[in-house]
Amino acid sequence: MNKSSNIRNWIFKSFFMMSTMAVLLFFISLQVYLYFSEGPSISLELSIYLTMWLAIILLLLSIYFGFRTGYTFKGRIDDISTFVTLLRSGKFSARVDRFEHDELGILSDELNQLAVFIQEQVKSLQRLADEKSELADQAHQAAVMEERQRLARDLHDSVSQQLFALNMLSSAAQKSINSDPKKVGTIVTQVAEIAGKAQGEMRALLLHLRPIDLKGESLCEALTILIRELKEKTQIEIEASLDGIENLSKGTETHMFRIIQECLSNILRHSEATKVKIVTEKKDGYVALYISDNGRGFNLRENKMTSYGLQTMRERAEEIGGLFQIRSKEKEGTYIDLRIPV
């Protein structure tokens, strides 16, 4: 409102200055004419009188046209200002009227085109949000189905077979308990070994069932809880040094947590390790993660990245721009090195 008023005053002052200059030019021209004229002259008083009347007439005209032009100009400026306010408030369907084919008319057209463009962009964003929500639901359903299939496959391939073996050994022990007591001791030993392996498999599967998100916890807090639970439920000695993982992005924290979770699951299921070491530290430009165990290891040339879990860890590392490396040797353990730029 103040800007429009200032513009109106500026127009009025412009008209007033034009009128004043016209009066001065008239008075000067009249005096020059009278000075060089050879005909009958008029007095100085009359010339001043005529000039004053001309000044009054021009002043009234300047006031009239100044206010009239300023009012019209102010009204058009106010319409544009109101339209911009409506756009800022989110009413993108509003339009400003165009009265003249001048600069303000061109500006009005540009603003109307801008409103149309913004309206189309909002529709596109809403459409993308709907599509994203649908894709997220589909991805969630697909992930749930894939996880169910994987768990069913793992249960069938490991725990189910081990339970079947336990059933067979138990039946054999029951039959041999009277006829061959010495054989029963060997069978019981085998039962204990298989039961221990089955227990490790089940713990690994339960570890996979942990939620992917961190439930509002920081990565350090979530890892501390995870390591404490493993120490309470397993006989594995876990040494952890968690440094330099503060203030990471949410995606980086989630992927690192899932990589560590997958790695610990593989250790529980396959390594037969008694010691695990987890180290995180921040170096120049990246966060480093080291995980090692003293388990039985495996031959990388024969089993190079064929494991589902190892492939998953590599893919998660690549999704956040990280470098995933694994070293393993039979009977000497496995070493995982992950570097993530930050």
TrEMBL record:
Domain of life: Bacteria
SMART domains documented for this protein: HATPase_c
Keywords (A to Z) from UniProt: ATP-binding, Cell membrane, Coiled coil, Kinase, Membrane, Nucleotide-binding, Phosphoprotein, Transferase, Transmembrane, Transmembrane helix, Two-component regulatory system
Enzymatic reactions: ATP + protein L-histidine = ADP + protein N-phospho-L-histidine
SUPFAM superfamilies, per the entry: ATPase domain of HSP90 chaperone/DNA topoisomerase II/histidine kinase (SSF55874)
Spans traversing the lipid bilayer: 12-36, 48-67
Record domain Histidine kinase: where: 150-342
Membrane topology (UniProt): Multi-pass membrane protein
Main location: membrane
Coiled coil: 118-148
InterPro entries to which the protein is assigned, alphabetical: HAMP_dom (IPR003660), HATPase_C_sf (IPR036890), HATPase_dom (IPR003594), His_kinase_dom (IPR005467), Sensor_HK_TwoCompSys (IPR050482), Sig_transdc_His_kin_sub3_dim/P (IPR011712)
A GO term, aspect molecular function: protein dimerization activity
Residues in HAMP domain copies: 71-123
PROSITE patterns the UniProt entry points to: HAMP, HIS_KIN
E.C. number: 2.7.13.3
Location(s) in or outside the cell: Cell membrane
GO CC annotations on file: plasma membrane
UniProt-listed PANTHER family: NITRATE/NITRITE SENSOR PROTEIN NARX-RELATED (PTHR24421), SENSOR HISTIDINE KINASE NARS (PTHR24421:SF37)
Protein name: histidine kinase
